[in-house]
Amino acid sequence: MNITLKRLLGATAAVTTGAAALLGAGAGTASAKGRVHCDRAERVIWSSNGPATEVIAHGCDLPDDNHRWYRIDIDTLVHTHHEMDYQNGKVDRTKTLHDRTVRCLGHIAKKDTVLWFGCPPS
Hints:
This protein folds into two domains: 1-33; 35-117, no CATH class. Helix content is 25%, strand content 48%. It contains one helix and seven strands, in the order H-E-E-E-E-E-E-E. Strands 1, 2, 3, 4, 5, 6 and 7 form a seven-stranded mixed β-sheet that branches. A hairpin with an 8-residue loop joins strand 4 (70-82) and strand 5. The chain starts with a helix and ends in a 5-residue tail after the last strand.
């Protein structure tokens, strides 16, 4: 193989590796930027439809800017299982989960309570 061709291939490999490393580091910091922490949260589990897409949380540190998706780290998440498909129905049981992460599209904050919406079941 020609020495010029070897050098050209080596330089291309070095540039490609460096670009991949830089893109990987940038992607990591971009995803960490949308993270939020909440002390406790509740999520309703309906009898026929499964988990609701809303999470009601308390003690959250809200982000200063808008993101497409938020990653919420929750210390204590309580799943409330309902027997019927309406809010005032009888609660069948509750299940407490610790150290969970939920993805959501947005939030509405009022005092200490935050309604996270667009949260697909995890």
